[in-house]
Design goal:
The chain is built from 9 helices and 10 strands. The longest helix is centred in the middle third of the chain and has 16 residues. It binds adenosine-5'-triphosphate. Adenosine-5'-triphosphate (ATP) binds next to strand 2 and helix 1. GO terms for molecular function: ATP binding; ATP hydrolysis activity. InterPro entries: AAA+_ATPase, ABC_transporter-like_ATP-bd, P-loop_NTPase.
Length: 263
């Protein structure tokens, strides 16, 4: 469902993602973890087609990241950590926009059910600018869920959510995966994602330090008793760094100014 091969992202001579490869199947939930600046958001934004990769290949739901970008975007939802909502639209209008854009059948009923799940029913007519930080996050998740994408990329989705909101979000991620979605979830809240992830991708300074199943992670770092302990073992592991020509990014000159939408 997600295939990434030798992904590299260079911003103005800064190597943010270096030679990252991984593959995820339907139903799998991958925790994307690593220290600040590790390259997690860059991986997600490349996958979502919001920024061009400097090198490497990607495919989502069988659609190539370069040749079939529009189809790829139809099958993928990216929820950034600070969702850029439309200031002039209400909660209901956001869902209506997504429902119409993605031609979701009976989207009204579905939207109302999602709002109920995420305790936003009483905000149906509220303007986006009047929402709290956590409510904005919940609305972005509702918009992403509305069109049932095959792939969900959730960047720090728990930021700003209250404990019931976090519980609801994690349960919803699990049930999306049970119905066949592939989910990548980046988070620094390791104990919270530990219960739902089938796979982990650990990054540090652009490098992939580990990719595999939760069982493989435990096996590789024997003696670690939690995801947190395995995480520290993975990021402390020394690897040989290779030289990369940072001046030779064919996409650097034409990188677009990105206008993100909510889903
Ligand atoms: N638009 C940009 N221009 C230049 N450098 C950038 C840009 N976006 C990210 N970077 C750099 O790329 C590196 C990776 O950033 P990225 O946001 O992908 O990390 P992250 O793992 O998501 O971090 P965090 O956990 O803090 O959100 C960082 O060193 C960052 O400063």
């Amino acid at each position: 469902m997600i295939e990434v091969h030798a992904l590299r992202k260079i911003y103005d001579h800064h190597l943010a993602v270096d030679n990252v490869s991984f593959q995820l199947e339907p139903g799998q939930i991958c925790g994307l973890v690593g220290p600040n600046g590790a390259g997690k958001t860059s991986v997600m934004r490349c996958l979502a087609g919001l920024i061009p990769a400097s090198a490497g290949t990607m495919a989502v739901a069988g659609y190539d990241g370069q040749r079939d970008l529009i189809e790829l975007k139809r099958h993928l939802a990216y929820v950034p950590d600070d969702p850029p909502l439309f200031d002039d639209l209400s909660v209901g209008q956001h869902l209506e926009l997504i429902g119409r854009l993605y031609q979701v059948p009976s989207f009204h009923d579905k939207a109302l059910r999602l709002l109920e799940t995420f305790q936003l029913t009483d905000k149906l007519d509220a303007g986006a600018t009047t929402l709290s930080r956590g409510m904005r996050q919940k609305l972005a998740v509702c918009c992403a869920y509305l069109f049932d994408p095959a792939v969900l990329l959730l960047d720090e989705p728990m930021t700003g959510l209250d404990p019931p909101g976090i519980r609801e979000l994690l349960a919803s991620v699990r049930s999306r995966a049970e119905t066949g979605a592939t989910v990548m979830i980046s988070s620094h809240l390791l104990p919270m994602i530990e219960g739902i992830c089938t796979h982990y991708l650990v990054m540090k300074q652009g490098e992939l330090k580990f990719f595999g199943t939760a069982a493989e992670l435990r096996q590789r770092y024997i003696g670690t008793r939690s995801l947190e302990e395995a995480y520290f073992a993975a990021i402390d592991e020394q690897t040989d760094r290779h030289e990369v020509d940072l001046g030779n990014d064919p996409n650097r000159a034409c990188e677009p100014r990105v206008m993100e939408v909510v889903a």
